[in-house]
Amino acid sequence: AQSVTQLDSQVPVFEEAPVELRCNYSSSVSVYLFWYVQYPNQGLQLLLKYLSGSTLVKGINGFEAEFNKSQTSFHLRKPSVHISDTAEYFCAVSDRDDYKLSFGAGTTVTVRA
Amino acid sequence: EAGVAQSPRYKIIEKRQSVAFWCNPISGHATLYWYQQILGQGPKLLIQFQNNGVVDDSQLPKDRFSAERLKGVDSTLKIQPAKLEDSAVYLCASSLETGGYTFGSGTRLTVV
Fold it and tell me: For testing the chain B interface, which of A25, A99, A107, A108 should be mutated: the one with the most B CBs within 10 Å?
């Protein structure tokens, strides 16, 4: 199974500022990569995914992520955050042959006015 | 399209009691997963079903946890007897194909 490391447990950020959430995974074998968002008392919502093709992936709500195979990273970015982006963000990885997701511990993003 | 339905939303039980959670996946999704999310951690896979067969239950504490998926549709997850460390959110997800996971809202279990 994959191991996923989210390097920041908490990220405070001011409204309209950019944010980057870092994610590294353990294996260099072919993988699928995902970012999920979890709002309080809700389930997980898919922000974006990398399956193949372009290494820059665009998702919902203005988020994007870049797959870097040599660094085994999949960092999430947004150029300008809103108060409504306050949530928990999870990076997840699956091997291409079993589709089971391994999640990081999560990054709490708090957007302040 | 209806999402993944889970019930109950919340449950409080005393340790050593039993509890059951229910999940109804998206229609047509052959694969169903149960995840456990302890506060402050990412979700951890407990069990994966493909139709009504178990694909992976290596992380399921089988001495107290059990799950079934009768007729390849709905699924139930049971804990008997519950321990304090079972307090968590239990998430059900279903998928049609890779990358197509849809999660339910979860059941928040508190064991006191």
Answer: A99
What's the sign of the alpha-carbon dihedral B38, B41, B46, B48? positive
Tens-digit pLDDT profile for residues A80-95: 999 999 999 999 998 8
Here the tokens at position B2 are 């209806």
The C-alpha atoms of residue B101 and residue B70 are separated, in whole angstroms, by 21
The answer for residues whose C-beta is within 8 angstroms of residue B61's C-beta and 6 or more apart is none
Contact B103, B40 (CB under 8 A): no
Which CA distances in Å does A44 have to B15, B73, B93?
28, 21, 9
- Tell me which residue of B86, B95, B40, B28 sits closest to B61, measured CA to CA: B86
**Arithmetic mean of pLDDT, B83-101:** 87
Which of A26-35, A53-62, B16-25 comes out lowest in average pLDDT? A26-35
Supply the mean pLDDT for chain B.
92
Q: Name every residue whose Cβ is closer than 8 Å to that of residue B74 and which is 6 or more positions away in sequence.
A: B22, B23, B24, B25
Nearest to A76 by CA among A30, A23, A32, A29: A23
Kindly report, residue by residue over B10-45, the tens digit of the pLDDT: 999 999 999 999 999 999 898 999 999 999 899 999
Please identify among residues 58-97 of chain B the ones whose CB lies closer than 8 Å to any CB of chain A: 91, 93, 95
B25 in A contact zone (CB under 8 Å): no
Q: Which residue of A has its CA nearest to B46?
A: A100
Considering Cα of A87, then A88, then A91, then A94, what sign does the dihedral take?
negative
